[in-house]
Write a structure and sequence with these properties.
Layout (H helix, E strand, L loop, with lengths): L2 H10 L8 H10 L11 H8 L3 H13 L3 E3 L17 E3 L74 H5 L26 H4 L5
Helix pairs in contact: 1-2, 2-3, 3-4
């Protein structure tokens, strides 16, 4: 593919029949940058132009009669079978038409940056972001901010022995030991300094 040859076929080739323009572009697509050695098959050109092979043959004859293409070096296709060799064409890219004045600035690709650059428009709305509030630990009972405890934590065991509770003493060894001497007295003699006769004998009157 040659960009130079395609650009010539589009912009500078003179007296191109409108019906044969696609065929000329197909040849330029396979030509070298100097416009030589274009040998696509007629079936390929028919595929480009969405037309039949006979129409392509008429286009090639018309382009050759107008001096826009000419037969080139046929040795480029000697490696192909004789009955399947396409014709090698050269484009007459030395022939050029005059460019209209209104298209003089657009005929050739412009290099460099344009003189005036359009500044991009920022159509995004002003986005307001709520400030991030830091989470302060609060005391559940007072709902007040809790200050950080800066005191160091020690893991040394305490040497202070606590007196076990009466319930804990009563459950030692799995046997309930009465802590109150009056707890086992019968209702009739409760409050007396000692057990009654029934209590002494193991029963409650």
């Amino acid at each position: 593919m040659s960009i130079e040859a395609v650009a010539w076929a589009l912009n500078d080739a003179p007296d191109v029949p409108p019906t044969a323009l696609v065929t000329l572009l197909g040849l330029a697509n396979h030509a070298h940058p100097d416009g030589r050695a274009a040998w696509p098959s007629q079936t390929r050109l028919a595929h480009y132009g969405r037309k039949g092979v006979r129409a392509v043959q008429r286009d090639l004859a018309e382009l050759e009669s107008r001096g826009l293409i000419r037969r080139g070096n046929q040795r480029h296709v000697q490696h192909m079978p004789a009955d399947r060799r396409p014709v090698v064409w050269d484009l007459a890219i030395e022939r050029r038409r005059e460019t209209p004045a209104e298209l003089s600035n657009l005929a050739e690709p412009q290099s460099g940056r344009p003189v005036e650059l359009i500044e991009p428009v920022d159509n995004r709305g002003v986005v307001s972001v709520a400030p991030v509030r830091r989470h302060v630990a609060e005391d559940v009972t007072t709902r007040r901010p809790r200050r950080n405890d800066t005191s160091s934590t020690t893991y040394e065991p305490s040497l202070t022995l606590k007196e076990p509770s009466p319930r804990a003493r009563s459950l030692r060894g799995g046997v309930a030991l009465p802590t109150d001497l009056r707890a086992g007295q019968c209702p009739k003699h409760r409050g007396s300094p000692g057990p009654c006769r029934a209590e002494a004998l193991g029963g409650i009157a």
